[in-house]
Amino acid sequence: MKGRKSINEADEPLDINISPLIDMVFILLIFFIVTTVFVEETGVEVDKPAAASATQLEKNSILLAITDKGQVVYGGREIGVSGVRPLVRRLLQADEMPVIIQADQNASAGVLMRVIDESKLAGAKVSLSANKIN
Question: How many CB atoms are located within 10 Å of the residue 73 CB?
Fold first, then answer.
C-alpha cells in the first residue's frame, strides 16, 4: 500500500527553531530604545499665556516651570528660586543648552525675573515658553 505508514514507525517530532526570531526582536527593541528621544517635562501643569511671536525651540533644554502660586519646579519637584542657579550650573557642565521657563500666566512677575536672573548668572541662555496664537 503506497502512501501509508505503519503505526510502529516513530515519527520524528518537528522542531521549529525560533531563536533567530527572538534575536531579531531583541535587536529591534535595542534599536528603538537607543533612537528614542526622551522629552523631559517639568512635572506640573502650567497655563502658559499666548504669544504671536512664539517659535519652536530645540528639544535639548532645561525646562523650568513657575506655577501660579510662585513655585519653581524642575522635573516634578519644587526647587525654589534659590535652587535654580546650582541646578542650571550643574546641568550646563554636561552640555551647553538653553533654559526654557514655562511661567503660568498668573505667576508673579517678580518670581519670573528672579528665575531669569538666576539662570543667566549660572551662564545659560534663557527663553520663555508660550502658546502660539493661531
Answer: 19
